[in-house]
Design brief:
The complex is a heterodimer of chains A (206) and B (468). Chain A is α/β, with parallel strands linked by helices and 206 residues long. Chain A contains ten helices and eight strands. In chain A, α5 (111-118) links the parallel β4 and β5. Chain B has helices at residues 5-13, 38-46, 77-93, 108-115, 146-155, 180-191, 206-210, 213-221, 237-243, 252-264, 312-325, 345-348, 351-361, 379-387, 390-397, 447-456, 462-465, and strands spanning 14-17, 23-26, 29-32, 57-60, 96-98, 123-126, 140-143, 157-160, 164-171, 199-204, 230-233, 275-280, 287-289, 297-299, 340-343, 371-374, 400-401, 422-425, 441-444. Classes of the chains: A alpha/beta (206), B alpha/beta (468). Chains A and B meet through α5, α7, α8, α9 and α10 of A and β1, α2, α3, α5 and β8 of B. The complex binds iron/sulfur cluster.
């Protein structure tokens, strides 16, 4: 299985502020009533974007900038801390990815969300608190400037600005080498898997 | 070298190092449900792959099952489609399915322990973030995404990096009216909702030694609310006694060897922990959340925090929380009117929860302004409760007695809040919209506190209402 090498993601950026944004907010549970991920993109942040009255609410995802990212199917979401906490639903990164986001930059990411995203080939890069604040402010003030998320060199740049970024070494390695989906490696280990299975009493039925 | 349970289980299940530095970890037990598995089976078919060890995956249906409608087809065609997809997938791939007509269906995190599938020293994965529940038995259990469900189906392994281990010790006796739920809400309040990122939580101390397996499950269940992907308690005699005689427990001839093996996985005295945090059980009081994250919690007799007392980062979330909850900073939460009371979920929908509340409920009546529902987490729990006559006590008091499932813990079935209803809930998440209405409000608490709210129609101290 050959996958694209994700060394760099370039695109317009959208700031979605707030810490502890949970996956119930990213994709409300009612949209999990499905047997495929198709069509999830349009429901990303649905209840934040639309009020109970059915009217649009002020939310970054309703902005012209978000629409541009959706049209380009390419863009960077700049988020706060502990983004994607809560439910393990892969529907969350799937919906944002299908909407058009191809990278995340934030203060920190909940672990399951992080894993679910990188396995889609969508990098989640972390900036220091101060850098994130600066990046966030820059993105709001300069919506027309593209952000470059450089996974290879661990830096986020926009215009003349740049911020040092980080990501777990294993995730970076997978992205830049086109091995972000581990299935090929895992399948390759099959003989070793059988060997381990044989050493586990509960697996062999005791 | 002295090792933690986490390290021992990790080593026993390590298949090999992957080129990117991660571990290919063997997953001995895989649990699946209808929400996060259909796409994984789809990917499997697309790639032309088989299920490697079908006998090590177990399925049930919980999120979408209506709890007040037993006959199929369900009135919700999507729910029907999802249950049928799981039937087809488990049949096509030869996976055991604890279906609704077996008397064993239930919330996935209740079915594993009830069947004796959940065992010490094992690795357990499930496409559900509350998988840490199984850690109560000394298993390393964690939630995974759907692509990873595919990985486990196809290879029985996952690509993972080891976690650090934080030992959380709680010592001493809990006061009357204080429960395992209060312990975990308190831990999350103190360590924060992201305090556990990168850690497995090892819960220990005399309080945990004294806890039943069901109480340990309540705590491990909410590890993820504290940011920890995995939480566990070292196995002991109570663990072994709980498993003995369950359908999937080792047979008599293998029993002694199994117990010896299980015991050997417990953390060694003198092992290294990346962090240790200690709590005194006597200081914990009944705890309730006031906001939109499980860490926004206070003791029932405290005031909600004034905004000035919070640091800048917490303040923004708190402001959002007060607005959503329609509550005021620096005021008491006691006396807040509730509309709905939900007793159930994989946190507190077990038989011990139903028994404990029933003890106090006899002769009491649910307030006429409250809709109260009680939802046993599994069919086995429901059957046992009915056998003990607990259902009558609840119905007599004015609760609706429901069938097994996730119900109002999340909004994927007909049990939902309406408008800005406020729900006193024994579940684990108070996120905005979690209970099915965008403006709905959730206050997390112990089962007995839910019952006290049901009777008085307001958030209140169960110790006073029931003279505990
Ligand atoms: S009861 Fe709630 S938390 Fe538990 S599995 Fe069901 S939806 Fe998830």
């Amino acid at each position: 299985m050959s996958l694209a090498k994700v060394t760099q993601v370039k695109g317009l950026a959208l700031a979605v502020p707030g810490d502890d944004i949970d996956t119930d907010r990213i994709i409300p549970a009612r949209f999990l009533r499905c047997v495929t991920f198709d069509g999830l993109g349009e429901h990303a942040f649905r209840d934040e974007r639309t009020g109970p009255d059915g009217l649009e609410r002020p939310h970054p995802m309703n902005s012209a900038q978000a629409a541009r990212i959706a049209a380009a199917k390419q863009g960077v979401m700049v988020v706060g801390f502990n983004f994607g906490c809560g439910s393990s639903r892969e529907h969350a990164p799937q919906s944002l990815w299908r909407f058009g986001f191809t990278a995340f930059v934030g203060g920190s990411f909940a672990e399951i969300f992080f894993g679910n995203s990188t396995t889609l080939g969508v990098p989640c890069l972390t900036l220091s608190k101060d850098d994130l604040a600066e990046c966030d402010a820059f993105v709001r003030a300069n919506p027309e400037v593209e952000l470059t998320v450089d996974v290879q060199n661990l830096v986020v740049t926009a215009g003349a600005k740049s911020w040092k970024a980080s990501i777990a070494a294993s995730a970076r390695d997978g992205l830049v080498n086109g091995k972000w989906d581990p299935i090929a490696d895992l399948l390759e280990g099959a003989p070793a898997v059988d060997k381990t299975a044989g050493t586990l009493a509960y697996v062999v039925g005791k | 070298m002295a090792k933690t349970l986490f390290q021992k289980v990790w080593e026993a299940h390590t298949v090999r190092q992957l080129p990117n530095g991660q571990t290919q970890l063997f997953i001995g037990t895989h649990l699946i449900h209808e929400v996060t598995s259909p796409q994984a089976f789809g990917m499997l078919r697309d790639l032309g792959l088989k299920v490697k060890y079908p006998q090590r995956t177990f399925a049930t249906v919980d999120h979408i099952v209506p709890t007040n409608e037993l006959k199929e087809p369900y009135s919700d065609p999507i729910a029907q489609e999802m249950i049928e997809a799981l039937r087809k997938n488990t049949k096509d791939f030869g996976i055991r399915f604890f279906d609704t007509n077996t008397g064993t269906q239930g919330i996935v995190h209740m079915v594993g322990p009830e069947q004796g599938i959940t065992q010490p020293g094992t690795t357990i994965a499930c496409g559900d973030s509350h998988t840490a529940t199984h850690g109560a038995f000394g298993a390393i259990a964690f939630g995974i995404g759907t692509t990873q469900v595919r990985d486990v189906l196809a290879t029985q392994t996952l690509a993972l990096s080891a976690l650090k281990v934080r030992r959380i010790e709680v010592n001493g006796q809990l006061s009357p009216g204080v429960y395992a739920k209060d312990v975990i809400l308190h831990i999350i309040r103190v360590l924060g909702v992201n305090g556990g990122i990168g850690f497995a939580y090892e819960y220990a101390g005399t309080t945990f030694d004294g806890f039943s397996l069901e109480e340990r499950m309540t705590v491990c269940n909410m590890s993820i609310e504290g940011g920890a992907r995995c939480g566990y308690v070292n196995p002991d005699q109570k663990t072994f006694d709980y498993i003995q005689g369950k359908p999937y427990a080792p047979k008599a001839a293998d029993w002694d060897a199994a117990v010896a093996r299980w015991a050997s996985f417990a953390s060694d005295a003198g092992c290294h922990y990346d962090d240790v945090v200690k709590f005194n059980a006597a200081e914990i009081r009944p705890t309730v959340t006031w906001g939109i994250t499980p860490g926004q919690a206070i003791f029932i007799d405290e005031k909600m925090p004034a905004l000035e007392t919070l640091n800048a980062a917490d303040r923004a979330t708190a402001e959002d929380a007060y607005k959503h909850m329609k509550l005021a900073p620096d005021t008491a939460i006691k006396g807040t009117k509730v509309d709905v009371c939900f007793l159930g979920s994989c946190t507190n929908g077990r038989i011990s929860d139903l028994r404990e509340v029933a003890k106090y409920l006899k002769g009491r009546k649910v307030s006429p302004t409250v809709k109260a529902i009680v939802v046993p987490g599994s069919q086995l729990t429901a059957i046992q409760a009915v056998h003990e006559g607990l259902d009558k006590i609840y119905i007599e008091a004015g609760f609706e007695w429901r069938g097994a499932g996730c119900s109002m813990c999340l909004a994927m079935n007909p049990d939902k809040l309406v408008g800005d209803q406020l729900c006193a809930s024994s579940s684990n998440r108070n996120f905005k919209g979690r209970q099915g209405s965008q403006t709905g409000r959730t206050i997390l608490m112990s089962p007995l506190m839910v019952a006290a709210a049901a009777i008085t129609g307001q958030v209140t101290d169960a110790r006073e209402v029931f003279k505990v």
